[in-house]
């Protein structure tokens, strides 16, 4: 009878570990998707970023500094 009472506890702990692993995996997938989206956005609008770089004087000062 002692084993039958301890088995649910161990099963609950195992399910808790599995749930934590699933949450971590989902979080990693979410971060990967965010990284893909943020990396794809600048390449989708290269003209706007190019215009911003051309209009800002920081590019010229960076060239002078180097």
Largest sheet: none
| Uncertain parts | none
Distance between the termini: 78 Å
Average pLDDT, all residues: 72
SSE string, helix = H, strand = E?
HHH
List the helices and strands and how they pair.
Blueprint: H1 2-44, H2 46-55, H3 58-65
Keywords: Membrane, Transmembrane, Transmembrane helix
Biased composition (Polar residues): 49-59
Transmembrane segments: 18-39
Description of the molecule:
- With 66 residues, the chain is mostly helical.
- The protein has one domain (2-65).
- It has three helices and no strands.
- The protein is rod-shaped, with a radius of gyration of 26 Å.
- The N and C termini lie far apart (78 Å).
- The model has no long low-confidence stretch (mean pLDDT 72).
Task: Record keyword descriptors for this entry.
mainly alpha; transmembrane; transmembrane helix; 66 residues; membrane
Structure at a glance:
Keywords: Membrane, Transmembrane, Transmembrane helix. With 66 residues, the chain is an all-alpha fold. It is built from three helices and no strands.
